[in-house]
Amino acid sequence: MTHVLVTGGAGYIGSHACKALKSAGFTPVTFDNLSTGWRDAVRFGPLEQGDLCDRDRLDQVFAKWQPVAVMHFAALSQVGEAMARPGIYWRNNVQGSLTLIEAATAAGCLDFVFSSTCATYGEHDNVVLDETTPQLPLNAYGASKRAVEDILRDFGAAHGLRHVIFRYFNVAGSDPEGEIGEFHRPETHLIPVMLQAIDGQRPALKINGTDYDTPDGTCVRDYVHVCDLVDAHLLGLKHLQDGGDSRVFNLGTGQGFSVREVLDAGAQVTGLPVPHSEGPRREGDATKLVSGSTRAGHELGWAPSRSSLEQMIGDAWLWHRNGQYDS
Ligand code: UDP
């Protein structure tokens, strides 16, 4: 059996990656400390509980399963929290990733797929964000991910670790079969927060700033369906297994939507009003993050098929109404 080590496999994106890996004939081994993930989301292979900063535990897991590759999702990922508590971002995201990268290298597991973020780019006026855009992160989340990208490059040069780095734009939607989905406690991401506001599970959604330099004054983001996103990871893994070079790819659709446009689509898809109010800007938010790259399409053959706003919100709504994890 061909094992792939999936850090953060109990989380939102990691669990979707595990499902896709299983469908593709791999056995995903989840490595997760369950600090934000869910035991219930680990349905497609074994769970190894442990912390990324625990080198001994990582060495045991590599020795036990002999994975052919690592997909590294485990990370803290909230902009607001990163502004307030940068230390936990540097420790968890950077120290944890460095420990993992060292363990993988020592074990001879040299194919590495890493989830990075468009938050590494920061604010760029009227610039198309492609993989060559300078990375000038506005918050410790983006900065911590950029640092891990640098570590991967150094380990590639020194130890032959080959990597595919994916810089995600805004990941949304859930498994259309309703088996797994987006489930954070507390929830901070726009689409699930909107769905909770729609069905009264929380008070009105607050729009974080209405005075941005965008057509309707709210931030613009590029949303990509989680299933399309994990498809790219399978293609990235294949690229490495076929002997391809280390590469970095943006994962976005190239189409931007403002917060207000997302709320309008939410009302349309659910047929229900979205209770909302207007608030101040959230520190650390860039005005506009939209991918201007087609590299993943050209080089990997990636072609997102579920990433219309309606489809993403529809799949998220299905999960919101029918699915949740207990533990
Ligand atoms: N947002 C908002 N209200 C909320 C949650 C998010 O206005 O309750 C905004 C947020 O400030 C950003 C956009 O929605 O401009 C997307 O935020 P999210 O947290 O989903 O993803 P991020 O862009 O931070 O990765």
Question: What would your notes on this structure say?
Answer:
This protein is α/β, with parallel strands linked by helices and 327 residues long. It folds into 2 domains: 3-172 and 223-251, 3-Layer(aba) Sandwich (Rossmann fold); 190-221 and 254-322, UDP-galactose 4-epimerase, domain 1 (Alpha-Beta Complex). It has 10 helices and 14 strands. The protein has a 7-stranded parallel β-sheet with strand order 3-2-1-4-5-6-11, sandwiched between helices. Strands 12-9-14 form a 3-stranded mixed β-sheet. Helix 6 crosses helix 8 and helix 6 packs across helix 10. It starts with a strand and ends in a 5-residue tail after the last helix. The mean pLDDT is 96. Bound molecules: uridine-5'-diphosphate.
SSE string, helix = H, strand = E?
EHEEHEHHEHEEHEEEHEEHEEHH
**Corresponding CATH superfamily of the largest domain:** NAD(P)-binding Rossmann-like Domain
Give the oligomeric state of the chains in this entry, treating copies of one chain as homo and distinct chains as hetero: single chain
Instruction: Characterize the main sheet.
Output: 7 strands, parallel
Helix content estimate = 25-40%
- N- to C-terminal separation? 28 Å
Number of helices: 10
Any chance you could write out the topology, listing elements then pairs?
Blueprint: E1 3-7, H1 12-23, E2 27-32, E3 47-49, H2 55-65, E4 69-72, H3 79-84, H4 86-107, E5 111-117, H5 140-159, E6 162-168, E7 170-172, H6 190-198, E8 205-208, E9 220-221, E10 223-225, H7 226-241, E11 247-251, E12 257-258, H8 259-270, E13 276-279, E14 288-289, H9 295-300, H10 309-322
Parallel strand pairs: 1-2, 1-4, 2-3, 4-5, 5-6, 6-11, 7-10, 8-13, 9-14
Antiparallel strand pairs: 9-12
Residues 79, 170, 188-190, 193, 205-208, 219, 221, 259, 282, 285 line the site of uridine-5'-diphosphate (UDP).
